[in-house]
Amino acid sequence: MALRFAAVDLGSLTVRLAVAELTGPGRFRVLAHYREVTGLGEGLARNDTLAPEAMTRTLKALKGFVRVMRAQGVDVSRTVATQAVRQSRNREVFVQQVQELGLPVRVLPPEEEARLSLKGVLSALAPEFLAAPELVVFDVGGGSSEWALIRQGREPEFASLPLGVLTLSQARPLGDPPRADAVAALKQEIKERLGEFYRQNLQPHLSATPRLVGTAGAVTTLAALALKMRRYEAQRVNNLILTRAQVAELAELLCRLPEAERARLPGMEPAKAGVMVAGVLIVLTILEIFRQDSLVTIDAGLLEGVLGEIAENLGD
User: Fold this and answer.
1) Which one of 42, 72, 212, 284 is separated from 169 by 20 to 30 angstroms, measured CA to CA?
2) Which residues, listed in sequence order, are joined to residue 15 by a DSSP beta bridge?
């Protein structure tokens, strides 16, 4: 049997596991994906601390991941943590608990998270999009948004913004169904924060209008909603062109429905229904700030980037 390895992503909203096998030097095939929405970042917006209940939910999910890895005969694994753990004041306690499960944890600095996310995106991005003179790749997560600017013949530029769907949703409760005034205030806050970030970190490096490429839960959920998926299919999400009109239509729908009705929409993972108002507003605002009519959606991201790095190291 080919050597098997795994990557675990301790996200602020979702924890994920991917199991792969080596198919050649630096090459791999993904055998299975597992995911669970545990809301690890719960409590961060209030006091920069991971809530005990959120840690317990996440540890329970990770125990299940460990059983899966044993059953799958995984030889090597790597666990990475992102904004929720990076920001939390009690991260040492949580990291120790995860390591006691046999999962050594690397807390990724923002730039490394953006680099690995980009590596995963580029593994799935179609050649016609890779040929664009300038690409802006963004990953909207639960606790932060990671950015990469790709220009032909130049090194990528990376940046991170602590703006995520979970922390924003908790810091700015909208009501159920969302109140119009609360939604408008949230949209304005997102516009101001993203606008300032764009002007400081991205605009100075742009010489043309870039192609936008989005990954991670907010983007892939919007793709699934646009396709009205009853069963999530990553290959249908990869390289889908999602138009600004579609995102605006989804924003109008999500911003008026109660959470229980959002949860029943085809393509919506029920556990994400509570954060997708913030998610759709972030993505719509990105399109507006960049003056783009569409973005390319990619399912692959941080997890696949970690797998790629493991495969390269195993091939050395």
Assistant:
1) 212
2) 10, 36
